Amino acid sequence: MAAITTLEKFEKTKPYNLFFNIIEKIPETVNQVNAIRFKDLLCPSLGVVKCSFLTAYVVDVEWLTSQYEQMGLSFPQITILTQKIRSQLNEARYPDVKLLQIPTTTEFHKHHSKLGIFVYDDESLRVVVSTANLNRKEWNKSNQGLWISPRLPKLPMNNKFETENPLKRPKIHDENNANIPGESVTGFKSDLLQYLKSYRTSIIEPAALEELTSWIKYVENADFSEVRVAFIYSALGQHERYSNGTHLGGMEKMLSQHCNIPSSENGVPWEIITQTSSVGAIGTGLSGWMESCFLRSMTSQNEPEGQTSRGSLNIKCIFPSERNVEHGICGRNGAGGLFYVENNPPMWFKQYLFHWKADQKHRTRAMPHIKTYCRISPELDKIGYYLLTSANLGPGAWGMRHFTIKDYNAISYEVGCSCRNFLI
Questions:
Q1: 333, 283 Cβ separation under 8 angstroms
Q2: N or C: which end of the chain has fewer CB within 10 A?
Q3: For the residues of 158-221, what is the DSSP string, one character each?
């Protein structure tokens, strides 16, 4: 029997197009219709890849280029934005691979986004939002999640943008997004463009800015009208509430525009469930950052200002326990990507923690690097929204609130996408 192509898998996972990675030590994941390897993103069934734009926190260039070679793309054109480089680029062998290293000013400033844009020979493209860095271990041994867009055709000539001068550095949120050609109902295209343009505050070399501008142009000239998810991102700087630029503001924007979730059913509140691979400095109690920023953002379309409280919400946070790690496929070596400091977050948070478990998908023994957030009905039959993202739980990834001016501040780059109105 012929192997199923990535496009056939894509068709079988509609309308959400959510995927997981294949775990090499768990054979059951190989045959899962919604599981793929990185190289499957380059499958000819999706289109003949002309060039790629990839972002990550860490990249192993040798491993990455080998993925392209295995799919017959021996001299790939790749632009990579990253914070850490694990192996050196052989520039003589790969002259069309461009590494743009994002500078960091403090240990808390992270370039943590995992985004892919794949342009095909007809200049159509696909966008991939992922939780995996660009290395073998994360793609083969940890649980990861991906959203893959439909193939987005090139706009007709009369709908093209005129790309700005790359040396002109506008504020991140000064874009006029009305009547953008090829926009989706969720504003995905304009939000993605704002995210890409936000790099102008970090990239200073003219050649790198020119390279970034070429990718902005690809996105500008693509038709995103078939996209049905919202793009959520964090980018360095200060951002208005109910706007993208922080995950806090991005989720508030999405919920206020596209969701209508009841606060409760028969007096029982809808539950918020988080699942991450790291828990940051969330404060000294639920009434700190968790309640005033995070929970308010996750319920913004139906919780009045100041009324989000532990009495009106149920929250559960899934995080691997020591037992999970010890019984995992990598043993204690599997804890390398898990970060939870005993007193940061503090002891109060333990009452909200729940074990990692994915028995039905045969993934319990592979530690999660995936990050997901959702709100689920009391009867466990409906999900109001589902967010897949690179952002772990904490202000470093989600943003902080400036209480004096009611704006948000971001110190990291993160990307995710959110679907709404699931039926289980």
A1: no
A2: N
A3: GG---PPPTT----TT----TT-TT--TT-HHHHHHHHHHHGGGT---HHHHHHHHHHHHHHHT
Token digits for 16?
């959400």
Question: What values do phi and psi take at 12, rounded to 5?
Answer: -75, -15
Residues 194, 232: Cα–Cα separation, whole Å? 11
pLDDT tens, 167-193? Answer: 433 333 334 455 789 999 999 999 999
Q: Residues in the chain, how many?
A: 424
Q: What is the mean pLDDT of residues 288-317?
A: 71
Pairing of strands 78-87, 97-101: parallel
SS3 234: strand
DSSP state string for 251-268: HHHHHHHH----SEETTE
* Tokens, residue 88: 């050196």
Q: What is the pTM of this model?
A: 0.91
Distance (Å, whole) CA 190 – CA 231:
9
Please say whether the beta carbons of 383 and 259 come within 8 A: no
Residue 175 and residue 187: Cα distance in Å, rounded? 12
